[in-house]
Amino acid sequence: MMRQPSVWFLGIGLLIASVGCGGGGGRRRPPLGEGLTRALPLEAGNAWHLRTLGGQSDDTGSPAWPISVYGPVSFHGHSAYAIEDFRERVILYVSSTSHGIRYYGRRNLADQENPDEWLVPPGYIPDGVLPREWDEQPVMIMSDAGSRYGYFVYEVPGFEDIDTPAGTFADTYAIGFGAGDDSGAVPDVLLNLAPDVGIVYVTSWGEPGVARSAGVPLQPRTATAVERMLTSAYVDGYGIGLGGGQRYNVSACFPLHDGDLRQFVGTEPWSQTVSGPTSFAGYEDVFLLDEGLQSPRAEYWRVEPGIGIQLLGQEEAAQASVRGAGQRRWLSRHAAGQRSRVPIVFTPAWELPDGIRIGEFADYMVPDQSGDIERNVLVDVATVSVPAGTFPNCLVYVASLRDPDGAEWDRLLHTYAPGIGPVRVYFPADMSGWELSYARIAGVEYGSGP
Description:
The chain is mostly beta strands. 1% of the residues lie in helices and 54% in strands.
């Protein structure tokens, strides 16, 4: 006797679908097995850019976030592709063959103690799965905290036509899946996937582990759901939707001229004056950005079109607590009293490269012997309004600080406007930050002057 579908969904389920496309009612839709690898293209560099629907609550600081593929990587003895959802702060580890999809587990970046959870044996979705099918597979759910018995479950409600800003996708395959301790729950996330495209729509009903009532069929687009739809994608070398696969140059968003001035308001007001060029750490054409704060700080920046922007070092208060270069924007901007500056050279230099797509990232090893990594990913290109004005085509990055165990212990969003420079810094943890209130760039003024 078949049991009611049950699953505690692990974060955002990013998996598996095949679709049939074409005509009207009564047509035969192919089973999943006829297009399994087409439904979830696993190639390093693939990325889907999804935007939260208007009017829905989002405290992340940006309504649009990418989901990216990289690898293969090693995950607890398995070679797998990593699928990272930068909004949900979760990485899924999967692989595909001609026989089906294997799900090895996930990394919850927000879990400081036990970020990894993996399944023994891995979850499996075979070729040929059809709409209205589901399966429940006994597994051991492993973590650094121990092991427990559970289930891997997938459920396939059926096909759906989906309209998104990236295009209209007919007969997308809807699927929910995951793993958890108990029977009697159902997926709290539903995915719609299209052939040769992948993820086109995500519907989330609640937090991981919070199930809807057992016995209620999966229904997308509910009033209480958090929904995200595809705006663009880069899949297997092809751009999808407006701007899909386009490359962006951050060097055009960080002008440096002697005498430039930027002033910010927010958590505490601060300013940034530019002088140079000068030489620093063996580099020429370096500019000094002096923040002129109560606890003086200055940063040495270099911009090279076609290469990107580089932070070569800084002068920091002698008694300030500096964990490393990767933490520079997380440090308190005030300290007791005026202190002399101490030059610090970053080896290697921190940098954001030119020519990257939405969903691509640059990793930076923090040079303080901690093993921490700062991952900077381009998450959005947007029109941004701040007190100094409204600026189109701004590049929005998220900087994620991660320890050697894979947990994320802090993050911020930084936004750069073409021809202006930094216009916003946002800390999702406490929803604080700064916005540009005034700028004088190459003699041109923006906003209200000092």
